[in-house]
Each structure stands twice: as structure tokens, then as C-alpha cells.
Amino acid sequence: MSDTKFPEEVQQTVSDVEEKVKEEVLETKEPAAAEEKAPEAAPDAQPAEEKAPEAEKSESLADKTLAELSEMFQSLKEGADSMLRSKEAENIKSAFYKLLGKLKSENPETPAGITNPFEAVEENFKAIYADYKKERAEYNREQDAKREENLAAKKQIIEDLKAIVENNEDASASFPAFREIQNRWREAGPVPVTAYRDINDTYQFYVEKFYDMVKISRDLRDLDFQKNLEAKQQFCEAAEKLSENENVVSAFHELQKLHEQWKEFGPVAKEFRDDIWNRFKAATAVINKRYQAHFETQKEEQVANLAAKQALCEQVEAIAEKEISSSSEWNELSRKIEEIQAEWRKIGFATRKENQKIYDRFRAACDRFYARKREYYNEFKDSMNSNLAKKMAIIEEAEALKSSTEWKKATDKFIELQKQWKEIGAVPRKKSEQIWKRFRAACDEFFAERDKQAKPANDFYGNLKAKRALIDEIRAYEPAGDEAADAEAYKGFSERWQQIGHVPFKDKDEVNDAYRSAIREKFPRTSASSPRSGSRPGRAPRSEKDILMDKYRALQQDITTYENNIGFFAASKNSEPLIKQMQERIEQAKAELKELEEKIRRSEEGEAE
């Protein structure tokens, strides 16, 4: 109880009032039959923050960086309502130090001479938080002092009311003073929570005593009842309107305020007392049911969200355990993980009990995937460094060999080195172009010098000129239409081609392709279109199917050669025209392969007949 003491006669009066409360016309309590009331909160208590579920705040803060959390705290601190958001401030602080501890554990050591990267942001946050705590402490001291002042003021109000009750003056003189006391009471601010019930009960006791003990005229009493009725009708209308508010949570909190205001007004006439309270209670019941239904629906949604998040966890866990052997597959699965993470962010919160657990599970699966990805690329980097060492060894060998004048032996060795080069895997991108140019320069230097030093017996450029002339002659040849004559012409061209010596290395593929193309065009039925076909001069003509098969195999070999050339020149930016030319030849050869397949099929059908 408060420091205000009741005299013995007042105590006796309390007992008397309790005995006759059901019969007194001036009874001020609400009907005892009222069963449904909104949850009550002390009106003098500190205004409550609007709190989102802790799991929701935890997950939103878990995605923030240290800098973002510091900015959030600074913004909260500078806000006009910062003193009412202490719980949110502590959540931000907890998230900050949780993330800081995690980052420190992942980066346990700081190289000598380098400032700890977390020290500055930690010190900055500490300074902001210290200022906030200081302001909060001062604010709380001020509020406590104010509540103590309000408590003293309300005690004085009770003493003034007690004096009116005990003096038992004429109603015309005491009623205005009583009204003034009611206004002073409503205007007085909140008191300490520990004193709220006692001080309020004491005030209500003397209010009831005033109506019971003061001989007030019926006219004034009825006027007071009417004013109270009008005020409570307005409360009913406000509560009924709240039932239409789409924001159920906000409506519920507004209803609590209406209940507190309801208590501040005195009774109404006895004939209206049950009706007005039942009306207010009915509006309260509607809002309470909507409030309960809201959370039931929210719970169902959270259960569905939990199931959806569990499914996403299973997907990420399956990906995190998958055997992956190529960079392209890692990139593809990384994009898939990012899509799943985006889908996760679209899903609402799970149940309060499971929300943090399911988030930790999802985060752990993602972390496992990215840890394996880092491990793979570390190993891949080691492999590329090994390949780089192998190619550097080939470069050194090529550079040592480029000045050799043993043309045949050195040529064979260079061809072997080029083959080895193509068989070695990828190297670091920043080194790829550099080492390729160095290797190609050694090759080009050797072959250029070899071609310059060619003896008359092996005049590479003269041979090139002779072979191009022969190709022109083949292209100008008009088939006689006689198979034997065409075979003899083909034989002559083939023998002359074989008698011509080697051509410069860089022109070899181009002139051989031109020769085979010309032969295929002019002698499609006589023999294979390439010296590699194994035909011998003077050999009897073979069947059409054999000739077509030889052409088919020759084209396949051509395609393989072109593809190898593309692989050899792909590392050089200057080789783009040549690569494009090789790709065009591959497409042309593939088209010819399709035509040959159809011809071979028709030939087989003719033999069957």
C-alpha cells in the first residue's frame, strides 16, 4: 500500500461498502459478470516498443556487416525515440559482437606490422554504445525522478480528496472541488510500477467514498453520470471502429489504451451500467478474436515457411556433397546456390522455436559448398602452376634448340615439343599469353631460319611455288568422262605431287588442303582424295563404295587436323584469322561428310540389289 493511511472509521466504511455494493445507486465498479477483458497493462508504465518477433530481428541482423550494424546503431541513437528502443539497441549490439567474434575466429592471426582490421570498427562501436548507455542512464534517472514527483503529486491529490470526503461539506461546494481533483489526477503522469496498484486502489476507494458519503444533489449526480455515459459511449464507438482496422496488432494495442482511459471515468447510471459495459466488452471480444486468429494464421504460415526452408536446406546440402570435377560445373552450381539463396529471402519467418535453427542449417550447408569450392580452386591453382612449370621447361628447350642447324633433327624435335605443349593443361591466365608468345617466337625463329638456309635440293619456297602451280593445273583439268583416262590423269598428278619436295612449315597445311580439295573435285570416283589414302599408282580402280569410304576417312582426318590446329593457335590473339579459317574448313568438311554418308548409303543399296 502507499504511504497514505486510512483512519479506523474509513476502514469500517470500506467494510460497509463491500456489504452493500450491489444495492447502492452510486456503485462505481463494472458488472462482476464481465468475463472478457483485454489484457491490462499498467498505464503508468513506460510505453512499450513495437516488437517484431526476436527470430525475425535476429535473421535480419544476421545478414548485416559490421559497418552496417554500426550505422544502424548510430541511426537509432540519433533518433528522437532512441530511449524507447533499448531492446532493439541491445539486439544490434549482440549481433555486432556475434559477427565480430565469428570474423575474428575465421581470421585468427594478423601479419606483423599490419593493423588489426577489426580494431577500428570495434572501438568505434564501443564509443557509440558507451554514449548511448550514458544517455540511457540519464534518461532513466530523469524518468525515475519524474515518477517519484508524480507519486508525491498523486499522494497529495488523495489527501485533498480524503479531506473532501471527511469534511462532508455541502454538495454544491464539494462537487466542483471533486471535479478539479479528478482533472488533476488524470493530468498527473506515471508513477513507479511498484506503487501503481496501491496508489490507484487508494484513489478509487476515496472516489467511491465521495459518491457514497457526500450528500450530493441528484441533479448533479445525474449530470455526472450522463457525462461519464457520453465518454464511455465514445470509447465503445472507438473500440467498434478498431474492429475494422486491417492492422490487427495495432488495433489490439489501441484497445489497451481505451481500457485504461475507461477506468479513469466514474460510473454511469445504474440502468445503463450493464448495457454500456456489455457493448464495450463485445467490441473488445471482436478485436481479441481477430488478434488471436491473426497469430493462429501466422503460426500456420510459419509452419509452411519452415517446410519450404527445410526443402531448400536439403537442396543445398545435396549440392554441397556432390562430386564436382570441373570449373564450369562449380560455376553452374554456384549460380544455383545463389538462386536458392534468393528464393530463401522471399520466404517468411519460420516458427519462433525453429527459425534460428533452420537458418543455421541453411547457412552451414552454404558454407560447406563454398569451402569445398575454395579448396577446389586452390588445388586447380596448384595444377596450373605445375602446368606453367612444364611449359616453361618446353620454352627453355625450344629456345636452346632454335639456333640449331641440324634441320631435320631439330624440325622433328620442334614438332614433338609442339605436341607436348598442346597436351599440357591450362596455366594461370595472366601468364598464358606471355609464355605462348615466347614459345611461338622460338618456333618461328627456327623455321624461318631453316627456310632461308634451304639448299637448292630442298628449295622450300620453290617447292611451294611448284605445288601451287600443280594445284592450278589440276583445277583447270577437264575430266574426259572415260574412267581409265581419268585414272591415268589422276596417277600423273599424284606422281608429280609426290616428287615435289617440302614446302615452308607455315604453308604446309594450307597447300595440302588445297591439293586434296582440287583432287576431290576433279577425280571423285577414281581414287582417294589424299596421299594418305594408301592408293598406289597403277592400281586397278576400286568399287564406288571403297572410293567413297576413302574420301570419308580422309575428311575425318582433315577435321581432326583442323581441330588440333585450333587448339595449338588458340592461345594467341594474333591467330584469330587462322582460327576462323580452320573453323570454316571444319564446317565445310562436316557438310561434305553428310553428303558422303548419303552416297555411301545409296551405294550399299545398289550393291544389295
Features:
609 residues
Structural class: mainly alpha
Distance between the termini: 121 Å
Q: Can you count the helices? A: 19
Q: Please count the beta strands (DSSP E, at least 2 residues each).
A: 0
Largest sheet descriptor: none
The oligomeric state of the chains shown is single chain
Unreliable sequence segments: 1-55, 527-541
What percent strand? under 5%
Order of helical and strand elements: HHHHHHHHHHHHHHHHHHH
Radius of gyration: 49 Å
Mean model confidence by pLDDT: 75
Helix content range of the residues, please? Answer: over 70%
- Shape estimate: elongated
Compose a concise summary of this entry.
The protein has 19 helices and no strands.
Characterization of this structure:
The protein is mainly alpha-helical and 609 residues long. Helix content is 74%, strand content 0%. Helix 3 (66-78) packs parallel to helix 5 (119-167), helix 5 runs antiparallel to helix 6 and helix 8 (218-242) runs antiparallel to helix 9. The radius of gyration is 49 Å and the shape is elongated.
